[in-house]
Specification:
The protein has about 210 residues and is an alpha+beta fold. It has seven helices and seven strands, in the order E-H-H-H-E-E-H-H-E-H-E-H-E-E.
């Protein structure tokens, strides 16, 4: 993937697969975007002093796991500035893989037993709710807080669609939306609600975009 969307001539915007040296920047962007996410507040105990440290560690380990498993991670750039990130689990990435066991050990050390258990349960619940046999799961998608409300989310979703097009074995893309505004955004880009799933005390919507 080099440039996945056509932007206006006066806007230098491009989407590319992330490289190793970009993971730290991507983790920082995701941390800022997901800091107040209700699911992460629930899983990592947002009322405790070490919440931010545990969230940073969890995001870092998630990205490392994506990289080791060669899962698609897309960065959206405005000029030389990273303004968005999307990370997907591809259809051949399974919860029982060696990658998963390595990830679980690192998560246990950094996030703790109960947080790790809830992360696993969340992923299993979302996977089981998707009515497709072979699909991508959009695990992370975020636009930097300073660049939101400018349409970059739609550019990022165009890049996600490009990932889907590059994998003809995938039937579609699933996502777990945790708030009304996110649900409305995904509905606007052709995602359909398939099931409401709760993570602890937080309810969210499992949504699916089917291959055209």
């Amino acid at each position: 993937m080099t440039e996945t969307v056509v932007a206006p001539e006066n806007v230098d915007i491009r989407a590319t697969y992330l490289k190793a040296h970009e993971l730290k920047l991507a983790a920082s962007l995701l941390y800022q975007a997901y800091h107040d996410d209700p699911v992460f507040l629930e899983i990592f105990n947002g009322d405790k002093e070490d919440y931010e440290q545990r969230l940073r560690s969890a995001i870092r380990e998630e990205l490392n796991a994506f990289w080791q498993a060669k899962q698609p991670m897309v960065g959206l750039y405005l000029g030389e500035t990273m303004v968005g990130v999307a990370c997907l689990n591809s259809p051949d990435d399974t919860l029982s893989s060696e990658r998963f066991w390595h990830w679980r050990l690192k998560m246990l050390l950094n996030a703790g037993y109960f947080s790790t258990k809830q992360m696993i349960q969340k992923e299993e619940s979302v996977f089981s709710a998707v009515p497709l046999k072979s699909f991508h799961l959009l695990s992370f998608i975020a636009v930097h807080p300073l660049h939101q409300q400018h349409g970059f989310g739609h550019y990022l979703m165009a890049a996600v669609n490009t990932v889907l097009e590059e994998h003809p074995d995938s039937e579609g893309v699933a996502v777990y939306a945790t708030s009304g505004k996110f649900k409305a955004f995904f509905e606007n880009v052709d995602y359909q609600l398939v099931k409401e799933v709760s993570v602890g005390n937080v309810s969210g919507s499992v949504m699916v975009h089917h291959r055209s």
